[in-house]
Design brief:
The structure is a single chain. With 215 residues, this protein is α/β, with parallel strands linked by helices. The chain folds into two domains: 139 residues, Rossmann fold, CATH 3.40.50.1000; 62 residues, DNA polymerase, domain 1, CATH 1.10.150. It is built from ten helices and eight strands. Strands 5-4-1-6-7-8 form a six-stranded parallel β-sheet, with helices on both faces. Helix 8 links the parallel strand 6 and strand 7. The longest helix has 14 residues. It is globular, with a radius of gyration of 17 Å. The protein starts with 6 loop residues before the first strand and ends with a helix.
Length: 215
């Protein structure tokens, strides 16, 4: 473990929260209203990770485009239901409390509006000095822009921060700026894609991450 760490940058969906059922509901309400067949949980889970518009494009029938009207319909459903069944994974709050001495930021590809609603409703917001969503920058993860901005605002170098996530987007972004990373496997992100990015550390859950910060 790098003992020089001053800040943690953490992904949201599949990393700190299990948001699948609320995403499934919003996607299927959107598809149903548009007259398209619904998608099952596994299909939608495999489409999560690259932002709401990419999620929609994956779930719409072949050759259907997620235009602005479709996107706004989905966001209306999701903003209304994003905190119904979403839960914090075990060990997350304990870890955030244990590392209160470190600066923290959320960098997610989820749009910022539901991100803020979710972390506030779950009582996570006060742990983070900075929160950025997929629509906060011109480019989302795996583009390094979000990480670069956070490093600048925290006034630290990449070697003084660590990225925690469950998707290849998180690890690729960290690698692009020379930042160490912790990959949580067997969540939303596909394991094979995650391993290809060669994360610095591999764990199963936040209890294992807490143990790493105890040494």
């Amino acid at each position: 473990m790098n003992n020089n760490i001053k800040a943690l940058i953490i992904d949201l969906d599949g990393t700190m929260i299990d948001s699948l059922q609320d995403l499934v509901l919003a996607v299927n309400l959107t598809l149903e209203e548009l007259g398209h067949p619904k998608r099952n949980d596994t299909f939608i889970q495999n489409a999560v990770g690259n932002g709401a518009r990419k999620l929609l494009e994956s779930c719409l029938p072949t050759h259907q485009v997620a235009d602005d009207q479709t996107y706004e319909l989905f966001m209306s459903y999701y903003n209304s239901n994003c905190s119904n069944q979403t839960e914090v994974y075990p060990g997350v709050v304990d870890f955030l409390e244990k590392t209160a001495h470190l600066k923290k930021a959320i960098l997610t590809n989820k749009p910022i509006a539901p991100t803020m609603k979710i972390i506030t409703s779950l009582g996570l917001d006060h742990f983070f000095e900075l929160v950025y969503g997929g629509d906060s920058f011109p480019h989302r993860k795996p583009h390094p822009m979000g990480l670069q901005t956070i490093l600048q605002l925290f006034h630290i170098s990449a070697t003084q921060a660590m990225m925690i996530g469950d998707g290849f987007q998180d690890i690729r972004a960290a690698n692009a700026v020379g930042m160490d990373s912790i990959a949580i496997i067997n969540r939303i992100g596909k394991k094979a894609a995650l391993l290809r990015e060669k994360p610095t550390h591999l764990v199963q859950n936040f209890q294992e991450i807490s143990a790493m910060f105890s040494t």
